[in-house]
Queue: 2 jobs
Job 1
Amino acid sequence: MNALDTPPECSGRVDRCLECPIRDRAVCTYCDESELSALEALKSYRRFAPGQEIVAADEEMSFLGSVVDGVVSLSKTMADGRRQMVGLMFPSDFVGRPLRPVAPYDATAVTGVTLCLFTRHRFERLLRETPALEKRLLEMALDELDAARDWMLLLGRKTAREKIATFMVILARRTASSRKMRPGDGLRFQLPLTREAIADYLGLTIETVSRQITVLRKDGLLVFEDARHCVVPDYVALLDAAGEDSDGGVIA
Amino acid sequence: MNALDTPPECSGRVDRCLECPIRDRAVCTYCDESELSALEALKSYRRFAPGQEIVAADEEMSFLGSVVDGVVSLSKTMADGRRQMVGLMFPSDFVGRPLRPVAPYDATAVTGVTLCLFTRHRFERLLRETPALEKRLLEMALDELDAARDWMLLLGRKTAREKIATFMVILARRTASSRKMRPGDGLRFQLPLTREAIADYLGLTIETVSRQITVLRKDGLLVFEDARHCVVPDYVALLDAAGEDSDGGVIA
DNA sequence: CGTTTGCATTGACGCAAATCAACCTTTCGC
DNA sequence: GCGAAAGGTTGATTTGCGTCAATGCAAACG
């Protein structure tokens, strides 16, 4: 029995999909108005508090859907407690494993989170009947796969300093793209994750995260207003510290 | 200009898709006979020698298709030469990035490889017209994503010994499943990769790979007939050394 | 108001894996 | 059959990051 098996609540609700803030990027992007009204009839909203578990690994998942608001982490835990984050989902990302009854990872609300949900059963039927949905889901899965592969390079080969710099670049890019702009000098963004979550993301310990953030701060690559708000004075220098060739300029 | 831009050769050719060895698992699995004959009209075969580059990162890819025979690695390289493998493709796996003109990684033939290819242009049109193809591609992308996430746990949190043990488990599983059986005690398999490739796969150096293989051998978890052929005397013990809870018994 | 609790920082120390280096074995071209 | 090259093993040494431990700091609480 997980949180998603309890009846959905109705907070953060957007009745009309056309007015939905993630309409242009979520799984429903390619749906026309009639398809959208089919979705409207079946969707429900659910709100999660920071730290709340959304689903546990290997548990049957009865709901899946889109992140409307907030940040969700996907993570795997070994028998002895070692943990690795394997996904970080922002608004418009799709949470849940379509076509399989169980998700092979824990999903946890990092911040307060609103999800737009469908029962797995209904969603899979919609998927069969709605090519627009399937096409978008394929696109999203392939994009996630690309991101996972960048992440593998980070985990396998980057130094702690490069890992932190890369993480900051990712947040900067995310923040910029959600404002439909390019990342650049002076960009200010929030760190939605605790040091522990950052460590789980990067395959480090909290102590190393803390130390390397200090290093980047002392090197002038990051300026902190407080522990959770950060400014990038020189974006290209940060990219360089991240070990990236250059920014392809993806607004994705 | 990459290898795939040269005209395809005709070796390893299987004229009739119905007789294809990967028919039951490849991207064309759900296609009916008429769809299959559309594929037959457009496909071509190409053979690659061990070590040969198939495509280079960020190059325009004019072909994509299925691995019919052999093993293909996908890898990313940093500016200073550090390299991380991000995918390892066996027969029936699909090589290439659908819906994007460039692949963000190098693809290299590890062993001798036969690919069943389509021009990207034609394949993307087929994809639009053939829901059976799209459905299977989505399934395969989601499965790859699951595999990538297991791999992230390995790269971020496992020790060198656990990494080697996990790698051997993966090969054992692959070998067993290609023979449509469960992995078990006494299973014998080949290592298709050099120590260097294994190191790139696991985020280690060749020396550490060599040492840890020796450790597992001395611990009795692996028995080597020669450097490239290995027997697993006790499968559960190997799983345990890999830090896996237990084997779900997936024949996928 | 002081205490607790959660989160973050900093320091000292140890260890696992990288690095540097030598050497062995097999394969391959000539 | 010889020399070179590629792949693999083993040893000595270094080092980056983890571990253990102490301290700071702010919000939450009785």
Note: The interface with chain A takes residues 74, 76, 78-80, 82-84, 86-87, 97-100, 104-105, 131, 134-135, 137-139, 141-142, 144-146, 148-153, 155-157, 202-203, 243, 245 of chain B (CB under 8 Å).
Job 2
Amino acid sequence: MKKNKNLPTGESGGPLMADVAALAGVAISTVSRALANPGRVNEKTRVKIAAAADKLGYTPNAMARSLRIGKSDIIMIVLPGSLQYGASQIIPQALQSINQALIQNGYTLLIANLDRDEISERHVLNLAFGGSVRGTIILSSELPEIGGRSLADAGLPIVSMLFDLSSASIPSVVTNDRQAMREATGELIALGHRSFLYIAGPAGNYHDVERYKGVVDALHDGGLTEQNVVRSGGRLSYQRGFQIGIEAAEDFDQLTTKPTAVIATEDDMAIAFISRIREKSWRVPEDLSIIGFDCAPVSEFCEPPLSSIRQPVEEMGALAAENLLRRLSDPAWNIPLKSVLPSAFVKRRSIGPVKAA
Amino acid sequence: MKKNKNLPTGESGGPLMADVAALAGVAISTVSRALANPGRVNEKTRVKIAAAADKLGYTPNAMARSLRIGKSDIIMIVLPGSLQYGASQIIPQALQSINQALIQNGYTLLIANLDRDEISERHVLNLAFGGSVRGTIILSSELPEIGGRSLADAGLPIVSMLFDLSSASIPSVVTNDRQAMREATGELIALGHRSFLYIAGPAGNYHDVERYKGVVDALHDGGLTEQNVVRSGGRLSYQRGFQIGIEAAEDFDQLTTKPTAVIATEDDMAIAFISRIREKSWRVPEDLSIIGFDCAPVSEFCEPPLSSIRQPVEEMGALAAENLLRRLSDPAWNIPLKSVLPSAFVKRRSIGPVKAA
DNA sequence: TTGTATGCGTTATCAT
DNA sequence: ATGATAACGCATACAA
């Protein structure tokens, strides 16, 4: 293993292509071909080179290769914030399926920002504009944008997931939040509920907006209006789902006429709400029906098991990754601007008929 | 913005240092200096160059830079498997704090694997040996190792976190699992419990082994022996924590003499166990006391709120990152082989005095 | 202080 | 089918 002498600094390097070439007794360019286009080299020399490479434990330098060919194999994932979405696990689940698709095609996953502060934003843009990255999957309603640079202008293929960014011309893979919530709320109405508490996510957040629209749709379906719903929350981010639920329970406590059903934008809120409301001797679902959203893994082990809406997270992740990969291998192909995969209501014991007055 | 003509393929490139140099009317090397060592260039030219760079929206090519200086700013994280550790969120929490420390120092976080299959292992090793990566943080008891290559031999600084790999000479940041579990079990003994069900993690897993040792320590402290504990589980990975809890509840059902306290290696197991056992009309803590481990965010909203052990995850992540960064900036510095940050027992309503017989 | 020239490790073009 | 050589974009030793 020849050491390269002029290494400016840092850890010592491993064997180079030149070392393999020397050992195999061929030119560097032949080694390059043998490794990349095995078909365009004599089988005998190919074997010889492969043996040499193996013996030396040669691993190609990815950066040199990327620099030369003008593209890398790194896919950047831009997250909306923390991975710690309480119990919901939506983001980790999404990452899981994305990663699987990427890695099987030889790509590498770079997590760009778990926080959403300025230093992280700048970081994202440097990566995007700095040539290190081949494409981007974004899970956020806002594109990183700072100092006149926007992620959209980095010349990289972008796909969005979970958030509908199609209006910004970014191909998006989403679920039918609105319709799913409409159906779920419909179930409550069918059970006789006429008065609701809606526990909201962050004000203006895409999911909160869509899901609340679904609630209103259902109200209209049932001949009701927004008058029938009281909103709570809207001040904190999804990362603080439990806290939102706690505050909603306090709000509920203040209400003079109590709703008979509670609809949370997300499971964490519902879970914390139930916990607090039960401490005040409210029974679920006898006194109060409650539904969440996301079908957090823990939701079926709650007391009572939480009715919720299951998103096809893995399918969305896989499709988003698939779309990006196809676009990368065929720049002429246009990713569908919007793909919608359906969610499903999962009925559990947290809802029941409205209490007879 | 001059287009570079010979781009082999792919997305069009942005402005280069040469473009900035041309616009500013200086040599490329001067631009390089102005951007990297602002001190070693005339202030006037520096301003001129900065203006030109800004106007063109210049972002340095990270790969070219890395190739030239022989080191990258990418830190690779090797995970034990899925991010979806049920509700515990330990891994995501760790990632969060690591990322924060890294990004503030100009480093980038690369998630090497979300699964732990062969293709991922190979991927990890290619990254490590391929020069793309500067250092590694591993959260796993097993070093990627395949085809004669081991992550340990990549010539990269490695730090471990959550898992004690100090016996393999890898600097590790861990918590005192054993002692923490000893204290928690001691609490149960102090409450009068003499007969236990231990819900085990994966057989041979570092955390399971350590924590169980702590249980045994406590038994001895109290003049008891392993005879006083029945083990359940040990067949599934932590990713299936809920499933382990379900099966433990079934095991419990079969026992002729019932333990009065249950100790789970991890919260998910405890949560699922409680859910199932309550369905069979067991009351917690009146009939049965239960503790978990990790203090999952959701644990305080369980019914009843779950007693558990809180690990200083963020502190561990920060320290691991800090150690790695210090090592990178000072190769002569030796990272402490083992750092132990203490966990703390959090007492909640899931435990109580043993029922009078 | 600034410019010139060389090389990082690889791929691709062009001869042979 | 293979080899010599020039680039990819940047940083640095050295010369001016």
Note: The first helix of chain B runs from residue 17 to 24.
